[in-house]
C-alpha cells in the first residue's frame, strides 16, 4: 500500500487512463473515476500504455482501482481533472460535494475556461491549471498510446506537486507563466478541428502544405484577436507564437527540415477532437474556435477562418457520420462563400 498522496482521476478517458495508469504503475495510490464503458473495457483487458519511444506497460485489472461512483473523491489528496471542457462544471460540483477544502485539483484539459469553471465551485481548494502537450490515442481494448512528446506542465504553487507526480516516463514541470503557456497551447489546439474535418492523421496533415497554409491563416487570425485583447501567448517550444504561421507556410521540403521536432509524431496520432468526431461524441469546438469568435465579436473584429471552421464543424456534428474527410479546398470554398454571403 502506497503511503504517498491518494490520487483520483476525475473522468478517466484517453488522458486520464494514460496519466493515471502510469502513476498507478509507479506505485501511486490511484483511483480512476470512469464511465461504465471504460470500466468494463479495463476490467476485461487491463490497461496497456505505450508511447512513440517504445515504452510499453501493462496493468492488470487487479492492479487498478476503478470507480463509477463519485464518492471515491472523498479519499482524494489530489484530483486530476480529465473530463472534456463541457463536463468541467459538473465535475467541479462533484468534487465540491465530496472532497475537503485544501485538496489539490489539477486541470489537465484543453481550452481556457476550465480553471475558472473549477474555481467557481472550489474556492477553498488548491487549484492548478495544467497542460498536456502530448497526444493520447485511445486504441481500444484498454490500450492508450502517447503519440507525441512533451512534459506535463502545471501551475506553480505550494507542496512541490511536480516533484511528487513526476515519473521517468512522465515528467511534470511547474510554471508560474501557465496562463501564457495555455494560450500558446490554445492556438495549437485550433488545429484540432481542421485535423478532425480533414480525417487525416496529424502527421499526414502537417506534411501537406495546403493544410498547413490554412492552419497558418487560422493561427494568425486568432493571434491577432488575442493580441487585440492584450493576451500574450507563450510556447513550450523554442518557436515564438508569432513565427508559427511563417513556419507553417514554408514549402514542405524546408518545413520538414526546420520543423523536424514538430513532426516527431507517430503516424497514428489524431487530435482529441478527431477522436470525438469519429466516435460521434460532441466536440470541444466551443471552448476553442468559439472562444476566439466571442472575443473577436466583442472587439468588433472579423474572423472569417474561425467562423468557417465553426460552421463546418457544426454541420459535421449534426450529420453525426463520423469524420467527414473534407479536402482543404472545400473549406477554402466555404470560407469564400461565407464572406460573399456577408458582403451580399
Ligand atoms: N486526447 C488527447 O490527445 C489530449 C486531450 N487533451 C485534453 O484533455 C481533456 C480530456 O481529453 P480526453 O482524455 O481525450 O477525453 P475523453 O473523452 O477520452 O475522456 C474524458 C472521459 O471523462 C468521462 N466523464 C465525463 N464526466 C464524467 C463523470 N462525471 N464521471 C466519470 N467519467 C466522466 C467521459 O465519459 P463520456 O464521454 O461518456 O461523457 C470520458 O470517458 C480534454 O480537455 C482534451 O482536450 C489534451 C491533450 C491531448
Ligand atoms: C494533439 C494535441 C496534443 C495538440 O493538438 C492535443 O492537445 C489534442 O489532441 O487535443
TrEMBL record:
It holds the Pfam family ApbA_C. Keywords: NADP, Oxidoreductase, Pantothenate biosynthesis. PANTHER family: 2-DEHYDROPANTOATE 2-REDUCTASE, 2-DEHYDROPANTOATE 2-REDUCTASE-RELATED. SUPFAM superfamilies: 6-phosphogluconate dehydrogenase C-terminal domain-like (SSF48179), NAD(P)-binding Rossmann-fold domains (SSF51735). Pathway: Cofactor biosynthesis; (R)-pantothenate biosynthesis; (R)-pantoate from 3-methyl-2-oxobutanoate: step 2/2. Gene3D superfamilies: N-(1-d-carboxylethyl)-l-norvaline Dehydrogenase, domain 2 (1.10.1040.10), NAD(P)-binding Rossmann-like Domain (3.40.50.720). One of its GO terms (molecular function) is 2-dehydropantoate 2-reductase activity. It comes from Sulfitobacter faviae. It catalyses: (R)-pantoate + NADP(+) = 2-dehydropantoate + NADPH + H(+). This is 2-dehydropantoate 2-reductase. Its EC number is 1.1.1.169. Belongs to the ketopantoate reductase family. Residues 177-312 form the Ketopantoate reductase C-terminal domain. Catalyzes the NADPH-dependent reduction of ketopantoate into pantoic acid. Residues 7-156 form the Ketopantoate reductase N-terminal domain.
Amino acid at each position: 500500500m502506497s503511503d504517498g498522496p491518494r490520487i483520483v482521476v476525475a473522468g478517466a478517458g484517453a488522458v486520464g487512463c494514460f496519466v493515471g495508469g502510469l502513476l498507478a504503475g509507479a506505485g501511486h495510490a490511484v483511483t480512476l473515476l470512469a464511465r461504465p464503458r471504460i470500466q468494463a473495457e479495463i476490467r476485461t483487458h487491463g490497461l496497456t500504455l505505450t508511447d512513440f519511444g517504445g515504452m510499453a506497460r501493462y496493468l492488470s485489472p487487479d492492479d487498478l482501482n476503478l470507480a463509477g461512483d463519485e464518492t471515491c473523491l472523498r479519499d482524494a489528496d489530489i484530483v486530476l481533472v480529465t473530463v472534456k471542457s463541457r463536463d468541467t462544471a459538473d465535475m467541479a460540483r462533484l468534487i465540491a460535494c465530496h472532497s475537503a477544502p485544501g485538496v489539490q485539483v489539477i486541470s489537465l484539459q484543453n481550452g481556457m475556461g476550465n480553471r475558472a469553471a473549477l474555481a467557481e465551485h472550489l474556492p477553498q481548494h488548491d487549484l492548478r491549471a495544467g497542460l498536456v502537450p502530448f497526444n493520447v490515442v485511445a486504441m481500444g481494448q484498454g490500450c492508450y498510446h502517447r503519440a507525441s512528446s512533451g512534459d506535463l506542465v502545471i501551475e506553480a504553487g505550494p507542496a512541490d506537486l511536480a516533484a511528487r507526480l513526476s515519473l521517468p516516463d512522465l515528467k511534470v514541470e511547474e510554471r508560474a507563466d501557465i496562463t501564457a503557456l495555455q494560450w500558446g497551447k490554445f492556438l495549437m489546439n485550433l488545429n484540432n478541428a481542421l485535423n478532425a474535418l480533414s480525417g487525416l492523421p496529424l502527421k499526414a496533415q502537417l506534411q501537406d502544405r495546403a493544410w498547413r497554409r490554412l492552419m497558418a491563416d487560422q493561427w494568425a487570425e486568432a493571434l491577432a484577436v488575442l493580441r487585440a485583447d492584450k493576451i500574450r501567448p507563450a510556447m513550450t517550444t523554442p518557436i515564438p507564437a508569432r513565427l508559427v504561421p511563417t513556419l507553417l507556410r514554408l514549402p514542405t521540403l524546408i518545413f520538414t527540415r526546420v520543423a523536424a521536432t514538430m513532426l516527431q509524431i507517430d503516424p497514428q496520432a489524431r487530435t482529441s477532437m478527431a477522436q470525438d468526431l469519429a466516435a460521434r461524441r460532441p466536440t470541444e469546438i466551443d471552448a476553442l474556435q468559439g472562444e476566439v469568435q466571442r472575443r473577436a465579436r466583442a472587439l468588433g473584429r472579423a474572423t472569417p477562418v474561425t467562423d468557417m471552421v465553426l460552421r463546418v464543424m457544426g454541420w459535421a456534428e449534426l450529420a453525426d457520420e463520423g469524420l467527414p474527410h473534407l479536402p482543404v479546398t472545400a473549406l477554402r470554398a466555404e470560407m469564400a462563400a461565407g464572406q460573399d454571403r456577408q458582403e451580399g
